[in-house]
Amino acid sequence: MTNALPLWEVFVRAKNGLAHKHVGSVHAADPRMALEAARDVYTRRMEGVSLWVLPSASIIASDPGESPSLFDPAEDKIYRHPTFYIVPDNIKHI
Amino acid sequence: MYTVSLSPETDLHIVAADDTQRNAVFEAKVADDQFIEPKDWMPDAYRKTLIRQISQHAHSEIVGMLPEGNWLTRAPSLRRKAILLAKIQDECGHGLYLYSAAETLGISRDDMTEALHQGRAKYSTIFNYPTLTWADMGAIGWLVDGAAILNQVPLQRTSYGPYARAMVRICKEESFHQRQGYESMMVLAQGTEGQRRMAQDALNRWWWPSLMMFGPPDDQSPNSAQSMRWRIKRDSNDALRQKFVDVTVPQAQALGLTIPDPDLKWNETRNAYDYGAIDWAEFHAVVRGEGPVAKERLAARIDAWESNAWVRDAALAHEAKRSQRKAA
Amino acid sequence: MTVALATSLGDDALILGQRLAEWCGHAPTLEVDLALANIGLDLLGQAQFFLGAAGAAEGQGRDADTLAYRRREDEFRNCLLVEQPNGDFARTIARQFLFSTWQALLFPDLAQSAAPAIAAIAQKAAKEVAYHARFAAEWVVRLGDGTSESHRRMADGLAWCWRFTDELFMDDTAKFRPEWDSHINATLTQAGLATPKPVRGITGGRHGRHTEHLGHILSALQYLQRVYPDATW
Fold first, then answer.
1. A50: distance to nearest CA of chain C, Å?
2. Predicted local confidence at residue B87, as pLDDT
3. Which of C192, C196, C202, C136 is nearest to C163 (CA)?
4. Could you say which of A54, B2, B242, C21 is the most buried, measured as most Cβ atoms within 10 Å of its Cβ?
């Protein structure tokens, strides 16, 4: 069996003003081939105006096992949210 | 609809004792309609069932390109040719989205492809029937895609995130597939005598295989309960099949075509159509690989893969040289 | 004038689109399958527009489908290059590379100078063919540079197609030859491939004298319309 073509993650910007969003992956031997594959696979219906592709292997993802220590500490920092503060109803523009 | 389990599920193990805690968390999340994402802990059986189901679905999309591809060069107008090419291309894309989703479970596309080519993985039985006339293009869109949609729509809320997202994209894109099929059938049904005959013949040949797409009857579908709990499967085979019959019969009537089932009749008490017995012996034979064009379909896929291996090798070799030159 | 030009451009696109459709379901990777279908769809669209314009200019009530489905092989005006069989992927790429590079030079020119009906189509299609030319050129480089097998196959594919390139530069299109040559040579150099030696050009497509392949293409393309002459689809 031959070697597999590497996997690339694909991100599409739907229109200017929006961020690129992950849409899936393609297999390709080189960056240009990955970009063209992403174009043919993920923008057949005018879904995008800009594409990013990057080797899947280069993504560093957080480990769900680590999620409690990474994300739970933010839970009790409710003073970061505007609803934490009581302002009388008659005070406007705040 | 390519999500009916077609292989024995003997490799699903009981959850190991030390995973009991994590399994409880997992089951609670699934029961709470939450999504499971690639790096989350999941029971081995869940991972295996998903890989089998998603890859089987992907294989079905890819093999499913062939029966329609058979008529691509013979499509009777430029408009029909473009529609058909765009539809088959979508199927290729859908196979690709699904392989992508399965790859997040730790299996490579090449491994899945190899499993298909070696006969270890199944695909929908429907694609092992031949496309004999142009009307088959209409019948496939109307009946086969119609059956697929019934199964795929609920899977947009399936428990595995990447699978659910792939299904959202697929359902959105497939919305034109069934409509173009029905429109094509309508033109034939209202056309010349020869075209009407062609349309009726296509319905005659595709009706029963379409009903079989929903898989064996519920009492012979042993792993359904677990798959339902995991939201990998959302409705029972028989419930979906009944729904398909109920929505399709009036569509056939509107075309002026006759469904090839003398036992088909409206049942007032059930508020549904009664339909005749399905030939399950035929279904099981096709699952075993004895469909009329099973060998042709698989041979075509193997040939596409093997006779073009040099192309993939060349692309990799070129990239290796290019990186080296860049580094130097 | 408009009729002849629109017919030849439409026939080119129709026949090459038909050839690319033969790859559907059989390409080296799923990504390439989608790519070839996309190019095929662009070409089918061009065929529809150009043949529609030809029919309109002719003024005898023939639409694009009538022209595509009801003409004999000696009434087709496509170049011989596009009717060549797909062969292996390298030959398909060679054919696409030589042809799309030509279209990519021709269309921007037509967009400026041709009759309005043709200019409008050429303007839209110029973007499509620029992409096709680039896509094909990149594959020429990958295959030429890749392995010894792919290099050999790419050279064979070019040699197969090269005979039919003179026909692209007859009459009004002769002026594109130098620029086409320089584009082709630049890519071949990058691919480590030799420019094929000059050979006696085989021509005739523009006058309705085709290779053996066109009749077979039409026998599939026109099959249903011939068997059911009174039907609409």
1. 16
2. 97
3. C202
4. B2
Beta bridge partners of A10: A24, A53
Determine, for residues C29 and A27 on separate chains, whether the beta-carbon distance falls below 8 Å. yes
Chains touching chain B, criterion 3+ CB pairs below 8 Å: A, C
- The alpha-carbon radius of gyration of chain A (Å, integer) is 21
**High-pLDDT (> 70) share of chain C, %:** 100
pLDDT tier at A67, thresholds 50, 70, 90: confident
Residues belonging to chain C: 233
Residue A91 inside a domain? The answer is no
Structure tokens belonging to residue B305: 């893969």
Domains and CATH numbers, chain C: 2-227 (1.20.1260.10)
Distance CA A30, CA B130 (A): 38
Rounded to an integer, what distance in angstroms lies between the CA atom of residue B70 and that of residue B68? 5
pLDDT digits (tens, 9 = 90+) for C44-75: 999 999 999 999 999 999 999 999 999 999 99
- Do residues B9 and B51 lie in contact, with contact meaning Cβ atoms separated by under 8 Å? no
For testing contact with chain A, the best of C20, C23, C29, C31 (most A CBs within 10 A): C31
Window from A48-52, B1-5, B114-118 with minimum mean pLDDT: B1-5
Q: B272 Cβ partners below 8 Å, 6+ apart? A: B242, B245, B246, B266
- Residue C136 in contact with residue C184, Cβ under 8 Å? no
- C186-228 tens-digit pLDDT: 999 999 999 999 999 999 999 999 999 999 999 999 999 999 9
Report the alpha-carbon distance of residue C11 to residue C31 in Å, rounded.
27
Cα(B158)–Cα(B51) distance, rounded to whole angstroms?
14
Is A33 within 8 Å of A47 (Cβ atoms)? no
Mean pLDDT of A54-70: 90
Residue A58 lies in a domain: yes
Residue A1 counted as domain residue: no
Q: Which domain holds residue A39?
A: 7-84
pLDDT, tens digit, 9 for 90 and up, residues B63-73: 999 999 999 99
d(CA B58, CA B271): 35
Residues 166-205 of B with CB under 8 A from C: 184, 187, 191-192, 194-195
Neighbours of C206 (CB within 10 A): 21
What percent of chain B shows pLDDT beyond 90?
Answer: 88
Q: How far apart are CA B301 and CA C176, in angstroms?
A: 41
Give contacts of C138 with chain A, Cβ < 8 Å.
Answer: 32-33, 36
Residue A35's pLDDT is: 98
Out of C32, C41, C142, closest to residue B82 by CB: C41
pLDDT value, residue B15:
53
Tokens of A72: 């739970």
Count of CA atoms in the C-beta half-sphere (13 A) of C215: 5
* C-alpha closest to that of C12 among C59, C62, C49: C49
- Distance, in Å, from the CA atom of C53 to the CA atom of C63, rounded to the nearest integer, reads 8
Please report residues of A whose CB lies closer than 8 A to that of C142.
Answer: 29-30, 33
Reported pTM: 0.94
